[in-house]
Amino acid sequence: MPHQHRLLSKWNRVDSGELHLAPRRWQRWLSDTGSLTQKIEEHIAQKLEVRVLRDSRQTLNSDESRYFHFQPQRCRVREVLLCKGNTPLVIARSVIPASSILGGNQGLLRLGNKPLGAVLFAKKPNSSKRKVLREICYLSKRDPFWQHFQKLYPSLPSKLWARRTLYQLKGKPILVCEVFLPALLAT
Q1: Residue 5, pLDDT score
Q2: How confident is the model at residue 8, as a pLDDT?
Q3: Is residue 78 part of an annotated ligand binding site?
Q4: Which tens digits make up the pLDDT trace of 35-53?
Q5: pTM of the model
Q6: SS3 sequence, the chain?
Q7: What is the tens place of the pLDDT at every residue in 130-160?
Q8: What is the pLDDT of residue 70?
Q9: CB 17 within 8 A of CB 43
Q10: Which of 6, 60, 61, 71 has the most CB atoms within 10 Å of its CB?
Q11: How many CB atoms neighbour CB 178 within 10 A?
Q12: Residues of the chain whose pLDDT is less than 50?
């Protein structure tokens, strides 16, 4: 197989037209550019609960490393469930390079059960008109990403839509992936 070593990704930019393949009911969630936490809280008319599944230092995988110019980096990876009471609505994975935690971003080390969106969208930066890189993906049981999340959350449905966004916090990159669970539409 000549393409065996080539980096392959099922992730597609939102503006690539892939968004239109998603069911209409998911399109607004996949394409929204604001705070997902705020959008969900408005949708469910209550505060979200954040349940931390894992928060540890790791080495980037090859697919995620492309967002950081393929430089091998140690990162903090934080995986959480965003819940309405006992009902999980979203699984979120944040990849925060060690260099992004320096200086004024050290508060990222003390998030606890606070949503990352509260920090990312706390203030409108001067560059708020700057376009962010956002991609979407349809995950199934064959995807390593789905398999990873299924280990953390065993009742994961077999097919899901997800998005990931490369944000800048005080000029430092943070990659956030959000996997939408069917309960979100049922609320």
Answers
A1: 33
A2: 43
A3: yes
A4: 999 999 999 999 999 999 9
A5: 0.86
A6: CCCCCCCCCCCEEHHHCHHHHCCHHHHHHHHCCCCHHHHHHHHHCCCCEEEEEEEEEEECCHHHHHHHCCCCCEEEEEEEEEEECCEEEEEEEEEEEHHHHCHHHHHHHHCCCCCHHHHHCCCCCCCCCCCCEEEEEEEECCCHHHHHHHHHCCCCCCEEEEEEEEEEECCEEEEEEEEECCHHHHC
A7: 457 889 999 889 888 888 889 888 888 888 9
A8: 66
A9: no
A10: 60
A11: 22
A12: 1-8, 125-130
Fold of 12-186: Chorismate lyase (3.40.1410)
Amino acid letter at 82?
Answer: L
pLDDT at position 4, please? 35
Cα-atom radius of gyration of the chain, to the nearest Å?
16
d(CA 119, CA 129): 18
CB–CB of 60/15 below 8 Å? Answer: no
Q: What is the Cα–Cα distance from 122 to 111, expressed in whole angstroms?
A: 13
| pLDDT score, position 124 | 53
Q: How far is CA 104 from CA 24, 43, 99, 172, in A?
A: 39, 32, 11, 10
Q: How far apart are CA 92 and CA 88, in angstroms?
A: 11
Instruction: Give the residue carrying structure tokens 């890189």.
Output: 133
- Length reported for the chain: 187
To the question of whether residue 178 is assigned a binding role by annotation, the answer is yes
User: 176 — phi, psi (to 5°)?
Assistant: -125, 125
